[in-house]
Automatic annotation (TrEMBL):
Transmembrane segments: none annotated. The lineage of its organism: Bacteria, Pseudomonadati, Bacteroidota, Flavobacteriia, Flavobacteriales. This is Crp/Fnr family transcriptional regulator. It holds the Pfam family cNMP_binding. Residues 13-94 form the Cyclic nucleotide-binding domain. Coiled coil: none annotated. It comes from Chryseobacterium herbae. InterPro entries: cNMP-bd_dom, cNMP-bd_dom_sf, RmlC-like_jellyroll.
């Protein structure tokens, strides 16, 4: 599928746009390709955009004062990534976003998102649905971190997103699960 088909399929899960509405919405996106290891958003940066992943993998992460990385999200095809606190509250980025595997994305700037939301109710509905779904996913992840042991979190991640097993280096999966690389190794070898 090409970029238009991927985005349209994603949107059609929620709303039906006319061809004219979709073409206009799609025209607001800027295609951007990234290579593995490339930084999209750095902590402390102004953020006025978000990325829709067509192919590849991005990660959203936080590095604490002890330089330990905590991964909030992996974004693969048909996922979105940004520092949403910075994006919506006009603050500096607290999180970084970088490229785990070469990625093709569509970049949407805030001013374009706000403009299309004022003009096309269905797009606003879609974007609200997407934000709500992300919020629900985050709550589920927090509950999993609070209630489940490392093995359960690993099995849950692999059941929900099996593509990550071969796409994402194991030390990053360990950082996402909040365990050491050695603990993760024991989990997938036992």
């Amino acid at each position: 599928m090409n970029a238009q088909e991927i985005l349209r399929t994603h949107i059609n899960k929620v709303v039906d746009l006319t061809d004219e509405q979709f073409d206009y919405f799609f025209s607001l996106f800027k295609p951007v390709s990234f290579k593995k290891g490339q930084i999209l958003i750095s902590e402390g940066q102004d953020v006025d955009h978000e990325y829709f992943v067509l192919d590849g993998c991005l990660k959203t992460f936080y590095t604490n004062d002890s330089l330990k990385m905590h991964i909030l999200q992996f974004a693969t095809s048909q996922w979105w990534a940004s520092d949403y606190n910075a994006l919506y509250n006009d603050e500096k980025a607290s999180f970084g976003v970088d490229c785990v595997a070469d990625a093709q994305t569509l970049c949407l700037y805030s001013e374009d998102r706000e403009k299309v939301c004022r003009e096309i109710h269905e797009v606003e509905h879609f974007l609200r649905w997407r934000s709500n779904r992300g919020y629900v996913g985050l709550q589920k992840r927090i509950l999993s971190l609070l209630n489940n042991n490392a093995r359960s979190r690993y099995e849950e991640l692999m059941a929900q997103h099996p593509e990550l097993y071969n796409l994402v280096p194991k030390h990053l999966i360990a950082a996402y699960l909040g365990v050491s690389r050695e603990t993760l190794s024991r989990l997938y070898h036992s």
